[in-house]
Amino acid sequence: MGILGKKLWRHIRHNKGQFLAVAAVVMVGIIAYIAMSSSYYNLSQSQENFYRENNFADYYFQVVKAPQEVMKQVEILPGVKRVTGRIQRDLPIIKKSGERATARVVSYTLPMENELNNLSLVQGRMFADNQRGSDVEVLLDPKFASANNLVWGDRVTVVVEGKETFLNAVGSAISPEFIYTMKDSADMLPDPQKFGIFMLESRQAQQVLNMPDQINQVLIEFSSGADQTQIIAAVKDILKPYGLLASYPRKDQLSHAVLQAELDSLRSVTLFLPLIFLGIAAAIQFVILRRMVKAQRSQIGVMKAMGYDNYRIMVHYASYALAVSILGAVLGTFLGLILAGSISQMYAQFFNLPGGMQGYNMKAIFYGFILSLSVGVAAGLTASRSVARIHPAEAMRPEPPQNSGKSLLEKLPLLWKELNPGWKMTLRNIGRNRGRFMLTLMGVVFAVALLIIAFFTNDAVDYIMQRYFYVGQTYDLSIRFNSLIQEKELLDINRMDGVQKVEGFLELPVKIHYQGKTQDEVLLAYPSDLSMKTMESGTGQPIQVPPDGILINQRTAAKLGVKEGDEVELETLLPIGPVHRDTVKIMGETRQLIGGGSYINLQRANRILQERNLVSGAMLKVETGKVGFVESEINKMLGVSSVLSRQKELQNFQKNMASMTYSVSLMILFAVVLGFAIVYNSSVMNFAERQREIASLRVVGYSTQEVSSLLLKENLLQSLFGVLLGLPFGRLVAGAYVKSVSTDLYTLPVIIYPLTYLFSALGGIIFIMLAHRFAIKGIKDLDLVATLKNSD
Amino acid sequence: MQRNILMKLERVSKTYDMGEVKVEALKESSLDIYAGELLVILGPSGSGKSTLLNIMGGMDLPSSGEIFFGDENLSQASEEILTRYRRNQVGFVFQFYNLIQDLTARENVELAAHLVKNPLSIEGILREVGLAERIDHFPSQMSGGEQQRVSIARAVVKNPRLLLCDEPTGALDYQTGILILGLLRKINQDKGCTVVLITHNTAIGEMGDRVVRMRSGEIFSITENQNPLSPERIEW
Question: Which of A41, A437, A773, B26 supports an S-S bond with B14, CB 3.0-4.6 Å?
Answer without folding.
Answer: B26
